[in-house]
Amino acid sequence: MSGIEEQQFIEAARAFAPVALEFCELFEGEPFAEELWAALETLLPRLYLGGVSLADAAPDDAFTHAEEGEQQFDIVPRLRNEAIDERCDAWASALGDADLLARFTFYGWAPPTVQGGELEPDYDASASRVSDELGVIYANLSGGLVLLDSGLPGTARIASDDWLYSFYAVWGEVVPDLLKAVHSRINTDLDDVHIEAEP
Questions:
Q1: Model confidence over 77-134: pLDDT tens digits?
Q2: Cα dist. 166→4, 79, 97, 118 in Å?
Q3: Which of 77, 131, 191, 196 has the most CB atoms within 10 Å of its CB?
Q4: How many CB atoms lie within 10 A of CB 153?
Q5: Distance between CA atoms of 24 and 138, rounded to whole angstroms?
């Protein structure tokens, strides 16, 4: 890998950083409901395109977080795991039934049912709440921001590798699914969803 290739890769990561920061600050901020969908409708495509740009600029040795003999750095999110879980719960509370609606619309509009007075969607067991997906994306983006903010030698390359790796492994799949849910929510009136109580 040439120095030019590495520099282009790092520049792609630095160009992606403001979009990652915008998402992370949204997640860390005060949860809100209706405005979230419009915000995500414009933000999620920019996140995905940023991941594609990283992939396009990636050198052959991408995913190598540090060359032999260089200092190793831990990749730590801006919030600890417990705090991320608390933020997910806060978003779930703010979104209410819309969190569940977006969850089951991933799987073909299967109507939810009411069991024991609680809204229960009929969804694949691997599905998760929109609020949880926000937390997954956050956990995979914010660590790179911490590294870039540190300004320490070598951290820009490590952040670039980490964002690219997690794009392929995690959030590159989560973002399109979440965008489908956002479109479903924007184009669906919750009052039109038929709720059937089980006998």
A1: 788 889 999 999 999 999 887 776 554 444 444 444 444 444 454 444 344 688 989 9
A2: 23, 17, 30, 35
A3: 131
A4: 9
A5: 6
Say if residues 131 and 161 touch (Cβ distance below 8 Å).
no
Q: DSSP label at 171?
A: I
Q: What are phi and psi of 120, to 5 degrees?
A: -125, 110
For residues 122 and 111, the answer to whether their CB atoms sit within 8 Å is yes
Cβ neighbours of 49 (radius 10 Å): 13
- Strand (E) or helix (H) holding 185: helix 172-186
Closest alpha carbon to 79 in 88, 91, 69: 88
Q: How many residues does the chain have?
A: 199
Phi-psi region of 178 (alpha: psi -120 to 50; beta: other; left: phi over 0): alpha
The first and second tokens of residue 136, run together, are 């997954």
CB 58 within 8 A of CB 93: no
Give Cα separations from 21 to 64, 113, 177 (angstroms): 23, 38, 21
pTM of the model: 0.78
**Using CA of residue 88, residue 17, residue 177, residue 161, what is the dihedral sign?**
negative
Which residue has 């979009």 as its token pair?
Answer: 19
